[in-house]
Design a protein that fits this description.
Elements lengths: L9 E6 L2 H13 L3 E5 L2 H10 L4 E5 L2 H6 L2 H8 L7 E4 L6 H9 L4 E3 L5 H54 L9 H18 L3 E8 L2 H8 L1 H18 L5 E4 L4 E7 L3 H17 L1 E4 L2 E4 L2 E8 L8 H17 L5 E3 L5 H12 L3 H4 L3 H16 L1
Parallel strand pairs: 1-2, 1-3, 3-4, 4-5, 11-12
Antiparallel strand pairs: 6-8, 6-11, 7-8, 9-10
């Protein structure tokens, strides 16, 4: 805490005349000021770097003070806060000298004839300004600190929200999207596809004989295979595609704006990449294949809702596994009688839970009409 806060302002007096400086010190002490007297400007600069002062009183010709940039140098040496500087001239200063001294950083420039009472009053006035300026500076620093803390809090909250969102939509083992996000995304993409007349393909995948991996090598090896498989998906699907883990060894890949033929090419790329990959963990080397079922909105007339797209792709996956595994089966290529039975079963699903609502359907149909009409 500095002297001014304790009720005794600190003054740095710079005066090369020792006798005059002594008189000033005595008079200032009677006014309740604590005075530090230095005769050399360089010593004054050192003093303000190491101690706190409330005001500087310079007894010097204004031209000389301005020439050595003493007022400004003292302000800079003080470290940024407001430090009032009064210069008392020698009686020879011109108006130009006084202006130069003020421009160099002095707050007041007085002739030597100034009366003591006026000088003390001027010093008290500058001290009041300093108190207000210091309070303003303190408030500014407090506000900046508060804003900095608030920004840090906002950044932390944003990071926490991002992490929470990732945890909500991400499978913790594979870091792929989870089944919850899969259903949300396919519903959104289906609405877009129907509104604008785009195709939408879904691949449902299952790792062949995965239970045997867990039984023979343990669940840690099984988890390793699942993580490696997820990495293969990331390398083989497009940025616009969404790969998700929907069950133990079951996965799905949503292919927006992709028809049946392009979807088959993507499925084939995944299947062959996986089949050619060797899963190596310590002494264990494994080869894994997968079965893939494919259904496509727009290319498959049976697909009229997101739930149908999932159901028909899943039935195509089941057919791929029943046909011997390590293959791709399209819903559209299933046996006619089987498809008829599955269509009947699909119609029994509750539209309220598994399809877009009637308002969305009306808007989507209007969108398709606009696209096709354009």
């Amino acid at each position: 805490m500095d002297a001014s806060m304790l009720g005794q302002p600190r003054v740095l007096l710079i005066d090369g005349d020792a006798a005059r400086a002594a008189r000033h010190c005595s008079q200032l002490a009677l006014q309740g000021w604590h005075v530090i007297d230095v005769g050399d400007p360089r010593e004054a600069l050192r003093a303000v770097r190491t101690a706190v002062f409330d005001l500087v009183l310079i007894q010097m010709a204004p031209a000389a003070a301005a020439g050595m940039d003493l007022p400004g140098g003292l302000q800079r040496a003080a470290g940024g806060g407001f430090l009032p500087v009064i210069v008392i001239g020698d009686g020879t200063a011109t108006e130009e000298d006084r202006c130069r001294c003020l421009d160099s950083g002095a707050d007041e420039v007085f002739p030597p004839s100034i009366g003591a009472d006026e000088l003390w009053a001027r010093m008290r006035a500058l001290l009041r300004i300093k108190v207000l300026q210091d309070a303003l500076d303190d408030s500014k620093r407090a506000l900046e600190d508060a804003l900095r803390r608030e920004q840090q809090l906002i950044e932390q909250l944003r990071a926490d929200n991002d992490l929470l969102l990732e945890q909500v939509v991400t499978d913790p083992l594979t870091r792929l999207y989870n089944v919850r996000y899969f259903h949300q995304f396919i519903g959104d993409e289906f609405r877009i596809a129907r509104r604008y007349g785009h195709p939408l393909t879904l691949l449902m995948l299952d790792l062949d004989h995965f239970k045997a991996v867990n039984d023979a090598h343990g669940h840690p090896m099984g988890d390793f295979v699942l993580r490696q498989t997820a990495g293969i998906f990331r390398r083989t699907v497009r940025d616009a595609d969404v790969a998700a883990r929907t069950g133990g060894e079951e996965f799905a890949v949503i292919l927006p704006r992709t028809g049946r033929q392009a979807g088959h090419e993507s499925a084939q790329r995944i299947r062959t990449t996986l089949a050619e990959h060797t899963f190596v963990s310590g002494p264990t080397h494994l080869q894994i294949t997968c079965s893939i079922g494919l259904a496509c909105y727009r290319d498959d007339a049976d697909v009229t809702s997101p739930h149908h797209l999932i159901y028909f792709a899943d039935q195509a996956l089941l057919a791929a596994k029943q046909a011997g595994r390590d293959r791709i089966v399209h819903w559209i290529d299933l046996d006619g009688d089987l498809k008829a039975r599955l269509r009947t079963h699909a119609r029994s699903f509750a539209d309220a839970d598994n399809t877009v609502n009637d308002e969305d359907r009306t808007a989507d149909q209007e969108g398709v009409a606009n696209v096709e009409g354009g």
